[in-house]
Amino acid sequence: MSGGGLLVAGTTSDAGKSVVTAGICRWLVRQGVKVAPFKAQNMSLNSFVTREGAEIGRAQAMQAQAARVEPTALMNPVLLKPGSDRSSQVVLLGKPVGEMSARGFFGTAGGRKYGEGVQGGHREALLGTVTECLAELRSQYDAVICEGAGSPAEINLRRTDIVNMGIARAADFPVVVVGDIDRGGVFASFFGTTALLAEEDQRLIAGYLVNKFRGDVSLLEPGLRMLEDLTGRRTYGVLPYAHGLGIDEEDGLRVSMRGAVRESVVAPPVGQDVLRVAVCAVPLMSNFTDVDALAAEPGVVVRFVDRPEELADADLVVVPGTRGTVRALEWLHERGLAAALRRRAAEGRPVLGICGGFQVLGERIEDEVESRAGVVDGLGLLPVRVRFAREKTLARPVGEALGEPVAGYEIHHGVAEVLGGEAFLDGCRAGSVWGTHWHGSLESDAFRRAFLREVATAAGRRFVPAPDTSFEALREEQLDTLGDLIEEHADTDGLWRLIESGAPGGLPFVPPGAPEVHG
């Protein structure tokens, strides 16, 4: 017997689909329901490596943790990793299969392949793949909570859609649309989203969920009643604005603005000083969630920067991962940050490079795969040479550094040849400059504390890491908070009826409706 399901769609990107999906998963598993998350197609530079060595969206890994299950490639069968404004690497069932333009993916043009790669005009094949993955999950779980992407009312993309109404229609899943009321215009967004859908798509739109509400809910109720009168669809809950949630994001929306600060969810510093961390907001920044563990430490302030003067008071500068290593290197030079990083290294002030950030700190980059730029000089801060290979490294390494155990994950095409320095997480250290391909290493609590002590000493700060901060425990608290939001502020009985029985019958058509499209 197949498990039931629900698709969580949104009026816009960043409406709260990922966290609502995670919250529903955590609520269900606390009720004894065996539940799994699913996102047919994700576009994100924040990814994760499963135990079997498959690459999936980091948001789906977070949702799997909320469901208390091990993440697998079935939960995110198609992952698109942008390499520019017009092209993305296509990851299918956890493995990269090619580079494709947006027109190639959504239309009929082809793309650059790795071996047996992807072809244009392939929507039916991909829909078949994601439908099979969903069916497999439904055979293993009592319920599957699907997350949509962007908005289901992207009428220019409906013909090729496999992640919103495409998968909902294929699985006959009910859809709840999430809207971010904090941005304003939520009623127009709910109504417009519904009215732009074809009649057969509208049949599955069961209702709405208001996210990020501040204030007295009674003031909202007249609008909710009018929305139901206009659409014939009810609202399944009003979720309050929750401060301090450091849950993994799919993209860089919140950190794309200069000076954006990573919210801390913990206490003031234990010692006399805070520790200031500046993260270079490089183009195509990937896995910037690496710094979340730093922001979780009492007294550590993390901000994203793009000007050299913003490095002046930083005790640690992080050059994060990027999908475009050579482009990031060019950007560092253009912004004057390359010279600032070289000055820091000469002065013995701490710098940490992670993955692509590690690569730019080396002596030389040879890239005929990602950028096809050939041989490019790095910043020369680490004795490392990097050559890009066509085969992507996907791994879950464990090891030791600074006398403490460390675990991480690797996602990169660059192969590093370390020519000197001290060993550091399969990378190296030269003075106050560290570099590694390992993402997630700072989530290892004892290692993170040891690393911050080294940084504080080099920076001359009287900073003391808290002895008992557990990043895993903090993440669990945040996921429990999401579950609490659903349990306390959503109609859980109504949501369960949708999961178990599907969309209510007789939902009215909201004109004008888009014309029916066929692949």
Automatic annotation (TrEMBL):
Q: Output the InterPro entries linked to this UniProt entry.
A: Class_I_gatase-like, CobQ/CobB/MinD/ParA_Nub-bd_dom, CobQ_GATase1, CobQ_N, CobQ_synth, GATase_3, P-loop_NTPase
The record's listing under CDD domains reads:
CobQ_N, GATase1_CobQ
Q: A GO molecular-function term, please? A: ligase activity
Q: Which GO terms describe its biological process?
A: cobalamin biosynthetic process
The CobB/CobQ-like glutamine amidotransferase domain extends over 276-446
Query: Record keywords: Magnesium included?
Result: no
Q: Which residues form the CobQ/CobB/MinD/ParA nucleotide binding domain?
A: 7-251
> What is annotated as the active site?
C355, H439
One Pfam entry name: GATase_3
Q: In which pathway does it act?
A: Cofactor biosynthesis; adenosylcobalamin biosynthesis
Q: What keywords are assigned to this protein? A: Cobalamin biosynthesis, Glutamine amidotransferase, Ligase
Q: What does this protein do?
A: Catalyzes amidations at positions B, D, E, and G on adenosylcobyrinic A,C-diamide. NH(2) groups are provided by glutamine, and one molecule of ATP is hydrogenolyzed for each amidation.
Q: Which family is this protein grouped under? A: Belongs to the CobB/CobQ family. CobQ subfamily.
Q: What is this protein called?
A: Cobyric acid synthase
Origin organism lineage? Bacteria, Bacillati, Actinomycetota, Actinomycetes, Kitasatosporales
Gene name, Swiss-Prot/TrEMBL: cobQ
